[in-house]
Design the sequence.
C-alpha cells in the first residue's frame, strides 16, 4: 500500500503539536544549506563550518554530566564510559546537522559487579542521561527480573515478555539478575523464548529501547557464554569495581546528608574504624551495607534520644540531626567482628 | 497504490494515507492524553460491521508510541491484505468510549459495494449494500490470487 511522504500531506489535525517539536530521538535539525544534498559525504566541502557551540549548549550535556559527578561517588571508570557515550551521541548529532546520516548507535549495556556497587542506581540515572542527550524519547526506566519476563506455561512467555518490552519502549529496560532468565541445565525452561525475543527486539527496535542487563560478574559471564549472540549485541560492558574504604566513607557522608543527618567528627572517625572491620567480613555489600549501617546508627540514636527525653533533658535540633560516636560504637562489628556464618542474609541487622 | 473503491472509515480517511511517522504522532497524542491503544483488523468492509477482531490486548500502560507502531507493523505482517485500524480509547469516567480511530492498512484492491434493491409491498423499494469482497468466505477475502478469482 502506498504511504505518502511526510510534508506532502495536509496537517495532522487539531491537537497535534507542530512537527519540529516531535523530532524523533532528538536528532536535531538539518542545516538548510545541506538538507537537499544526495551525497553529503562528498558534496559538502571539507572545510564547511559546523555550528558546534549551539548544539553543545542546546543539549545541556554538561549539566547532565555534572549532576552525575555530584550524585555518584567514585566509579571513575563507569563515569568515563558514560562520558564516552555522551560524546558519541553529541558528535552524532553534529554530523546529522550537516546531513551526514548514520544509523543510531547501539546502546545496550551490561552492568557487572558485586552487590551494592551501584548498578541499579546508575541504571536509573542512565534513563535520565539518555533522555537529556536525546537518544530516548521518554527516559523512563522499567526495572524487571526473570519473574516479569518468563511465563509459567507454554504460550505464556512471549506475550508476557512482549508486554514488558512495549512498556519500556521510549526508555530503558533494566533487567536485574539477568542470568536467571536462561537456565541451560533445564531444556524445558521457558527462558529460552524470552532470550530469543529479547535478541530480536534489541536488534530491530534499537532506536526505541535501551536494554541494560545487570548481575554478578561470574554469573553474567556464564550467561553470555550460554547465549550466543547476546554479548555481541551489547555495545557497552561496564564493570563496577568494589569501593575503597575512603570512597565508602564519602558515600556514608552523602547518604547521611541526603537523609538530613550529620555525623559528628568523632562519629566519622569511629565509622572509618567500623568500615575497616566490616569490609573484611563476609557478605559485605558495599553501598548497601553502608546504608544498613547508617539505618542502624539512626535507630540507636533514636533510642538514645528517647531515653534522654524521658529523663526530662532538653533536646535541640542539633541533637536530632547528629549521629554520635556511641551510636556507631555499639555495633557488633566492634565486638571482635561478630558474625555467624549460619545466619541467613535476610536480616543483616542481627549479624553485625 | 490501492485500487478500486477507497473505503472511508474513521478519522482522517479522506486524507492521503498516513505514513509511519504520522501514525506514530497520532498514537503519541493519544498516549499523552491517557488513552489506551488498541489495534483491530477485519476483512469485512461493510460500514455496519462494528465487530472487528482484536490484535492482542489493548495497551494501557505504554509510554511511547513506538510500542503501538511495533504492534501495527506486526499486525500488518500477519494480515497485510486486511483492514487494520488503531483505536484510542478514553477510559475516563463519563467518556468511556473510543476517542480517535483511524485506518492504518487496507487491502491492495478494494472491489467496493453492490447496491441491491428489494421491491416491497406497494412498490416501496428497500436498499441494501453488499460488499463484493464479502462474497468469499471469511479469511479468503482479498487473498493474493486476486479479488475477483471467484467470479
Sequence:
Amino acid at each position: 500500500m502506498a504511504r505518502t511522504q511526510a510534508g506532502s500531506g495536509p496537517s495532522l489535525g487539531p491537537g497535534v503539536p507542530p512537527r519540529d517539536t516531535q523530532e524523533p530521538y532528538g536528532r536535531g535539525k538539518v542545516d538548510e544549506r545541506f538538507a537537499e544534498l544526495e551525497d553529503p559525504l562528498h558534496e559538502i566541502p571539507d572545510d564547511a563550518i559546523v555550528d558546534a557551540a549551539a548544539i553543545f549548549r542546546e543539549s545541556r550535556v554538561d549539566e547532565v554530566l555534572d549532576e552525575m559527578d555530584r550524585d555518584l561517588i567514585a566509579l571513575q571508570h563507569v563515569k568515563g564510559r558514560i562520558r564516552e557515550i555522551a560524546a558519541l551521541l553529541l558528535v552524532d548529532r553534529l554530523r546529522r546537522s550537516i546531513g551526514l546520516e548514520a544509523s543510531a548507535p547501539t546502546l545496550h549495556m551490561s552492568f557487572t559487579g558485586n552487590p551494592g556497587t551501584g548498578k541499579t542506581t546508575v541504571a536509573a540515572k542512565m534513563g535520565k542521561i539518555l533522555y537529556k542527550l536525546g537518544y530516548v524519547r521518554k527516559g523512563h526506566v522499567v526495572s524487571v527480573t526473570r519473574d516479569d519476563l518468563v511465563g509459567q506455561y507454554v504460550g505464556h512467555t512471549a506475550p508476557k515478555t512482549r508486554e514488558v518490552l512495549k512498556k519500556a519502549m521510549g526508555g530503558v529496560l533494566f533487567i536485574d539478575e539477568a542470568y536467571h532468565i536462561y537456565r541451560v541445565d533445564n531444556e524445558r525452561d521457558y527462558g529460552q523464548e524470552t532470550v530469543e525475543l529479547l535478541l530480536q527486539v534489541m536488534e530491530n527496535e534499537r532506536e526505541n529501547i535501551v536494554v541494560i542487563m545487570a548481575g554478578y560478574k561470574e554469573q553474567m559471564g556464564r550467561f553470555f557464554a550460554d547465549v550466543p549472540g547476546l554479548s555481541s549485541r551489547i555495545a557497552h560492558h561496564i564493570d563496577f569495581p568494589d569501593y575503597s574504604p575512603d570512597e565508602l566513607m564519602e558515600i556514608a557522608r552523602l547518604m547521611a546528608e541526603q537523609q538530613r543527618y550529620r555525623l559528628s567528627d568523632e562519629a566519622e572517625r569511629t565509622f572509618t574504624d567500623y568500615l575497616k572491620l566490616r569490609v573484611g567480613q563476609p557478605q559485605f555489600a558495599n553501598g548497601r551495607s553502608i546504608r544498613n549501617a547508617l539505618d542502624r546508627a539512626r535507630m540507636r540514636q533514636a533510642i538514645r534520644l528517647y531515653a534522654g527525653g524521658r529523663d526530662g533533658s532538653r533536646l535541640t535540633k542539633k541533637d536530632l540531626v547528629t549521629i554520635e560516636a556511641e551510636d556507631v560504637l555499639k555495633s557488633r562489628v566492634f565486638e571482635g567482628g561478630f558474625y555467624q556464618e549460619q545466619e541467613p542474609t535476610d536480616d543483616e541487622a542481627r549479624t553485625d | 497504490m490501492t485500487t478500486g473503491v477507497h473505503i472511508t472509515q474513521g478519522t482522517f480517511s479522506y486524507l492521503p494515507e498516513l505514513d509511519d511517522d504520522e501514525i506514530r504522532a497520532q498514537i503519541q497524542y493519544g498516549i499523552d492524553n491517557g488513552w489506551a491503544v488498541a489495534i483491530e483488523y477485519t476483512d469485512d468492509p461493510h460500514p455496519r460491521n462494528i465487530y472487528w477482531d482484536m490484535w492482542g490486548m489493548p495497551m494501557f500502560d505504554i509510554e511511547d508510541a513506538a510500542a503501538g507502531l511495533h504492534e501495527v507493523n506486526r499486525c500488518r505482517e500477519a494480515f497485510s491484505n486486511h483492514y487494520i485500524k488503531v483505536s484510542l480509547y478514553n477510559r475516563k469516567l463519563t467518556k468511556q468510549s473510543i476517542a480517535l480511530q483511524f485506518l492504518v492498512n487496507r487491502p491492495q484492491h478494494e472491489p467496493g459495494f453492490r447496491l441491491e434493491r428489494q421491491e416491497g409491498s406497494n412498490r416501496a423499494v428497500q436498499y441494501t449494500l453488499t460488499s463484493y469482497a464479502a462474497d468469499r468466505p471469511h479469511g479468503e477475502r482479498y487473498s493474493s490470487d486476486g479479488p475477483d478469482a471467484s467470479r
